[in-house]
Amino acid sequence: MTTQSTLPFKRKGLSSVITNMISGSAIATASLAFSATALAEESSDVKEKKKSEVEVILVSGFKQSLNAATTLKKGTTVVADVISAEDIGKFPDQNLAESLQRITGVQVARNRGEGRSITVRGLNPDFTRVQFNGRSLPSAGSGRSFDFTILPSDFVHSLQVYKSPSADMEEGGLSATVNVETLKPLSLGERSFVVSAKAIQEENSGETTPYLSALYNDTFADDSVGVSFGVHFDEREVESHFYEAFGLINWPEAWNGQDYNFDGDTDDTFRYDAATGFAMFKEERKRTTLFNTLQWRPTDDLDLSLETLYSKFETDGIKPLNSFRWVNIAGGAGVTGSSIVADPLGGSDGYTNRLQVDGVDLRNSTRHNDEKDELLSVSLSGEYTLSDNLLTKAELSYAKSERETTALALNVIGRPHAFFQYREDLSAIADHGFVEGGPDPLAPELFNSVGVNGDYKKPTEDENIDFRLDFDYYTDYELSDNLTITNVEFGIKLSQKEKFLGHQFINIGSQENIEKFAELLGETYDPNSVEGGSFSAANYMTLHSPSNYLDGFGNGQFVTSWLSADMDKVLSKVSAEQLAAIQLDVGGPGQIEVKENVTAAYFKVNFDGMDTKLRGNFGVRVVQTKQESAGNIPDLSTIRFDGGGVTSVDSSESSMTRDYTEVLPSLNIAYDVTDDVIVRFAAARVMSRPTLQVLSPATQINANVQSINSSNPNVDPFIADQIDLSFEWYFAEAGMVSFAPFMKSIDSFIVNSRKDEQHTVTDLDGNNPRTLNFSRFAPDNGRGSDMYGFELNWLQPLDEIIEGFGFTANFTFVDADDIQLDESGPLLPLEGLSRTSYNLVAYYETETFGARFAYNYRDQFTTQEMNYFNDGRYIKSYSQLDFSASYDISEDSSVIFEVLNLTDEVTVETNSIGINRGVEDVGKRFTLGFRTKF
Q: Where is the signal peptide (predicted)?
């Protein structure tokens, strides 16, 4: 049921929320308790059961970490994979996402060369539930996916990837659930102190930065009290090199009656890139993390833990652009050479081979991005043995992620004469250059300023409050001679999630505001300039000539030196507060707030039989979701637009409420064919919720590309039925071969619908009305998709050939039906789906030396099929080779050396017909460090 109100909901205090959650838990728990006691005809001692569970085993070395991981995998009932630390504070990779990509079916999405999020079996990162010690952490990003850059790997003991769920696992992992697990201090049971110090050098920037961490563990009071404390700091000086294109625009009218294809008429419809640009991104990243666990076990029956995680991630970056807007021309236009080639899509229209124009809009602005992320997570948990056969666990946790973003740019325009020309290899960067005899693009006097815009102290908050209560009842209830129920698990979880995306935007774009801006800077404002009112930007331009710029990609004609507006020069004369005083837009269509309350109850039965060769579980999870969303609905009759790209519109607040309930059954079976061969079967219904940003009623307008982006609070969650099989052979220590076919039938995908509409816009001062064509994009539930595929995994020690040598290899194939909004809509490939991916790791270890080569490959995938210009966006296949080595200079100390992206690979984007849409080059990264354990 959906209701609508006119006022956004109000936030509740933390204390009242926790009180409501705990009081609600008592009712739900009472309704579940009686079902377990019916199985109590026979019982066994819960303490003995706990003693028989797998304990934490600390190992050292990469091969031993593989052995520990396969041991844990072999003991699970569900279909899962595990990565284990090589030693205390020594994970195989510095970045957790980079480690996860070594697992079959897992692919990593990178940001500035560092793993940020993961996809599992080809599905969007938002379909993967990432948990920290069994609970979800908030993320200040726009989606639900976890940002791995905020959490270092130093404190992690293992990564567990669950591909088939059980009823006790939290819903949300439609593709998988990943649990990041740290050590409990009493599990380690000894005093230890591990210190790491590393130096990281970036190839593109040439800068060397520190990476420091320390992890301390100790026990007291006859091993009844344990404490772990970790501190970490690292810094990166990243420099990425870019080429960007923004899609092929259909331009139905020739400029000034030009005959572009020389066929005698001026009614040509042709296609070309609306804008192209060269850029570099220089960014300083700082990450500080504190981690603490206090554990108290006063008796054998009671175990209490208090855990705290704090992480601060700061980025300070600039992105100087050399950007050509080919749709905004001040002078004439002309085409030389063979201008039109056949449209590969089969239509009568073509795309230009070469475009040469006078007075192109050269938008050479530098956006300065200053972002601060803070994450705080606190949890209090307890485990208590109520009787010989009944165990209860409870946890109350609170977590909050906050982000503040300031991203300002001085907007400038130059008007040189320029051209671009596609190369024979369309996936290569198009040739770009300036026409001889035209204005000098390296003359600061060429550029005029048309204002400042960007986020100013924009707040983002994501807050979670969770309470869970679980019971585990042990029994030996015989269903038959060959089948016994070993224990029954049941419990509830109550969660509240709030997400707030604020909007604070400095918007200096109207002629009145530009004049105020010029006066503030002491510059002369010219109301009759070619831009309709501006001032000279000559005093604020900076020359950029990045070394080795895109030298690893093709042999085309690039623009490798350019002038770009420098916001720092502006801020050296005036403050950001003074700019905000001219015009600061607060709230409006860019601001949303969403709240989600979830109540979940589960019942799970564990069984074994056939002399313990057969084991498994079945159960059901019932989930009720209540959501409230608030946002701003714009009045589309009030669109005001400046050619510089600034848009404003009147809006009014609106809120929506909605609730729904899902029933999620699951079954997992494992059968030991022999001591070393296991067959698994799993079937389940799984779900994931849409991103909270999609659930807002807000609508945003971008008049620069003439698009309207609406959210939709009425979209349904993603529901899928899945079947997994796994055949596993554990033939040696750290040796295994497995084959895991799977199938997933997804009921519905959220698809962006698109429709064209016309709206009247004016300048920012309300003058010069004209009608523009807009494309409205809005999410809606479309048709589902059937996915199927298989995973192959091979771990092979080769000690019989060369002592200490071995390799791991895995391969994943995934295919899926195209999706569409309805039967009449276009077929769209599934975003993020790579049909094939694989990993190869070769390792060599002795008692003192270890080395690894790790190769990762991911096939092409699409990220945005229904984009502004409807020509698609594809990331071409990507591979990366990494190297790491360590040498033990003593029993407890070692030297570490690593190289990421050894072969200097670049990321390449194309559109649906193969024309290049972008290149990113992040270069290699070198690490040299020292680690010691006391």
A: 1-40
